[in-house]
Amino acid sequence: MAQEKGTISIHTENIFPIIKKFLYSDHEIFLRELVSNAVDAIQKAKRLVSLGQFHGELGEPLVQVKVDAKAKTITISDNGIGMTADEIKKYINQVAFSGASEFLEKYKEAKDAHEIIGQFGLGFYSAFMVADKVEIQTLSYQPGAEPAKWVCDGSTNFEMDAGNRSERGTDVILYINEENKEFLEEYKIQEILDKYAKFLPVPVQFGTRTETQRDGEDEEGKPKYKEVEVPNIINTVQPIWTKAPTELKDEDYLAFYKELYPFSDDPLFWIHLNVDYPFNLTGVLYFPKIKNNFELQRNKIRLFSRQVFITDDVKDIVPEFLMLLHGVIDSPDIPLNVSRSFLQADSNVKKINTYITRKVADKLAELFKNDRKAYEEKWSDIGLFVKYGAISEPKFWERAKDFVLLSNIKKEFFTLNEYRDKVAPQQTDKNNNIVYLYATNPEKQHAYTNAADKKGYDVLLLDGPVDNHFISHLERELEKTYIKRVDADTIEKLIDKDEKIESSLSEEQTKQLEELYKSAITKPNMEISVENLAADALPVTITIDEYTRRMKDMAALGGNMDFYSTLPDHYKVTVNANHPLATKILSESSKEKQAALAQQAFDLALLAQGMLTGPDLTAFVERSVKMI
């Protein structure tokens, strides 16, 4: 076969249905695209005025959206630069030709030219997702221009004729099809505009609304009010992230937060983002009050591109641990897919991610340094962010070492270095390892924390949803340091100082005591041992292995650890040979009395562990009453 070369032909009749039906994942996007185009047209007019290339009366910029349910139309109108018939042919009939891109290239040196928000010529065609027919009525700003009309029924055929618009600007009229008649409901349009156009840089009006205004005073001098119809402007054209921090007060940030999240408590603090190199990024991120509930409510940070809402799925831009934050990010440099519906992989995304991580670390370090007391008071809220960041972001951890706090059950706070210095003298074991003890529920674990206190040991409180992972992280990062839950073993074994304690029992008595307690154990997976502990230590201690329990707790949070969640709990029952109760039990004359005392001591240990419930608890109480 002879070699042949040529070009691949792409016909509009083949690609047009794809544009109409599949380019946009959500049909409501059509309104965002058309309103954005209208805003562009007005922004272009402003640029031309500033360049001295348009000498007419600019007037008050305004985009209007109107719904006519009877006529089954939605109209998007603007008073921008309009189009001539030739420009319609160029910008509308040539699919994927972006007028915004051409305008930017032509006037790229103009001041504020970057404010043109349009990026893709395909946006106009999103109208055909919801409309059987689309009509354009337009009049260009150019002197002597004639109004033009363009009509298309969704096929590749169109009609052009003289238009009827008498003022500069453009009307895009959508004749809504039966499948999408929901968009003829005013509440639906209001909802979409609130979502996508809430912060566009040009006023967007959707009908009118009733407003109460003062109307003088009555005969007694009291103010009178009246109801009036005013334009329903749905957007704030200068949201706070477009302003310099020096222009804003705390009240401004709080008011904006309430606008975004009307039912939330006031945030703890916020970070104003503003960078123009090596990428453009503005925004405000808020630290909400979340306590220890680990409210992984994603989609709280909203991404904008030149004040147009894009998405609330920002997992690639914002580090995982900061997905708990609220607020907005606006960047023209974040790459979007052709329908502006989601992000595309790009080096800028990684740079922005790194920048946000650094800014958050800077803010936390500043708060800690400037007012440690206030920082400690906020720790119950911000500790989750910091610990989560330490676990998941190595670069953040490097900074967080200086401001991550540990708190003990006495509600005292320490930095990592401070805590090491505090406990090292008392809590160093025979192998020169420092052992941190912690509780997850001091009330429930009081018997164990009390035993630690008698030894002069300090006990941390680590009861948060990520603390199991945080503990493992600290053990990896801190040299010769182990972290053990206070009920993971007897206190002597938790911090083994190789201190030899002689037994007050003979070998035969020890064996007899062990058998008595074995008969008292009624629960499965319990291993008993009689050990030589201090006389003032508990007579019986029930513990669960630290490693197994920690793995099971992690499995409960998810993360491919299902194997551990299926393992049965395995408990260790340690009987103190040197406690006076041991001698008392063995001195009883009857085996029944010995068994009863052993059972009572074992039940007390179960009670301390929180394991004595239901019928077992009732039986324990009844036995105790009899013994009294």
From TrEMBL:
Give the top-rank taxon of the lineage listed in the UniProt record for this protein: Bacteria
Q: Name one Pfam family in it.
A: HATPase_c_3
What sequence ranges are listed for the domain Histidine kinase/HSP90-like ATPase?
26-180
Q: Which InterPro entries match?
A: HATPase_C_sf, HATPase_dom, Heat_shock_protein_90_CS, HSP90_C, Hsp90_fam, Hsp90_N, Ribosomal_Su5_D2-typ_SF
Record keyword Chaperone present = yes
Q: Which keywords belong to this entry?
A: ATP-binding, Chaperone, Nucleotide-binding
The entry assigns this protein to a family as follows: Belongs to the heat shock protein 90 family.
NCBIfam families according to UniProt: PRK05218.1
What name does this protein carry? Molecular chaperone HtpG
